[in-house]
Design brief:
This protein has 381 residues and is α/β, with parallel strands linked by helices. The chain contains 13 helices and 15 strands. It binds magnesium ion and zinc ion.
Length: 381
């Protein structure tokens, strides 16, 4: 029976991007001995009713309140995220499931519609829905995606691709060519160049004037869009092995996108907080969330200078049913327990800073984040 199951899993071939879901590596305790500095930002520079020219949506995949509080404890009782002046809660249910997956969760945030689990920016009738990235592009804004997984994985995919299944990585990669995205940074290079249909999307990107790089450092000095920075064949490695890819990628993307006088939309994902949750591994969760918080710090620092950028930090769902039953701020120590190796259905937090941030309070649906962004975003045309 087990042999049959293994043959089945190998045959369907969905394991390439999804095998993190099978890796249970239970670790309840984590001690962090490297606290990072955090930004102190306030809402004093903004008036109620102000509209943002730029929006940066930052998604901690699987980051519920327990993941966040574990990370807060591990950093000595402070974070960039928890310094953001406005906060609320988000319900995460999908159209067909009380517990969402990242595809439906991403689609709710990117399109304002709840769909079935596994769907990438299509509705329950499998009809494509325009995403905020595509809408921003249509109105002349620059756009970008940064992810610590493959750039073709469910969360980033739901902002740029339309597909009935999150597992169709090659079709998702091909959808990048249908947009004029200005910069994307993440893994998944092989879905662009080693494809069953024989297309080489890297060549097609070059024909569309993209400069293609393998790392942020290789792209140093190249600020002229469009840029494709494909940092791994499949997924990026974990932190700290992958280095400062997400904080530096966030800085890189902002520097490239802010050149557009019409403003920009950027989505940054801390993908592997979710994978730590699936593994019930407190160390994995906290290290990934600390890295994500550093990226939030980069975005806050840059936004605090221009006063025209709204930053929203939220999650698509919680992973692991995590609860914290012990900790110590001085030691950066946290002890957690888990109720599932999958996702849970609880509300997740949302934090906001910048013009329009005051709208992100109270309890809202995941789809409301899209509608608030659309109402607030300042479009020139
Ligand atoms: Mg994700
Ligand atoms: Zn997950």
């Amino acid at each position: 029976m087990i042999t049959l199951l293994l043959i089945f899993l190998a045959t369907v071939g969905v394991t390439a991007q999804e095998d993190y879901k099978e890796k249970r590596d239970i670790k309840e305790t984590y001690i962090n001995n490297e606290f990072h500095e955090v930004q102190k930002v306030s809402s004093a520079n903004f008036e109620t009713g102000q509209k943002p020219k730029n929006i940066i949506l930052m998604i901690g995949d699987g980051m519920g309140t327990a993941q966040l509080f574990a990370t807060y404890t591990a950093n000595g009782g402070t974070l960039n995220i928890t310094n953001m002046p406005f906060s609320g809660f988000v319900t995460t249910q999908s159209a067909d499931d009380y517990t969402t997956d990242s595809a439906a969760g991403g689609t709710a945030l990117s399109t304002g519609q709840r769909t079935y689990n596994g769907a990438i920016a299509i509705d329950v009738n499998k009809k494509p829905i325009p995403t905020i990235l595509e809408i921003a592009e249509k109105y002349g804004k620059a756009t970008g995606l940064v992810s610590s997984s493959a750039i073709t994985h469910a969360t980033p995919a739901s902002f740029i691709a339309h597909n009935e299944s999150r597992n169709n990585y090659e079709a998702i990669a091909a959808d990048f060519l249908k947009t004029d995205i200005d910069i994307f940074i993440g893994g998944g290079k092989e879905f662009f160049e080693k494809r069953e249909d024989g297309r080489n999307l890297l060549e097609e990107l070059k024909a569309k004037n993209y400069q293609i790089f393998d790392s942020i450092s290789e792209a140093h000095g190249s600020e002229e869009p469009p840029l494709a920075i494909l940092t791994a064949p499949k997924h990026n490695s974990t932190w700290p092995e992958r280095g400062e890819l997400i904080p530096q990628g966030t800085a890189k993307a902002i520097n490239v996108l802010r050149q557009d006088k019409d403003g920009f939309f950027l989505m940054v994902e801390g993908s592997q907080i979710d994978w730590g949750g699936h593994a019930n591994n407190t160390a994995y969760i906290v290290k990934e969330a600390l890295d994500f918080d550093k990226a939030v710090g980069v975005a806050l620092q840059m936004a605090a200078k221009d006063n025209e950028t709204l930053i929203i930090v939220t999650a698509d769902h919680e992973t692991g049913g995590m609860s914290i039953d012990g900790g110590n701020f001085e030691k950066g120590e946290v002890h957690a327990k888990y109720t599932t190796g999958g996702h849970s259905a609880v509300m997740v937090p949302v934090f906001a800073y910048g013009p329009g941030a005051e709208h992100f309070t109270g309890v809202m649906r995941n789809t409301d984040i899209f509608h608030k962004m659309m109402t607030l975003f300042e479009f020139q045309k």
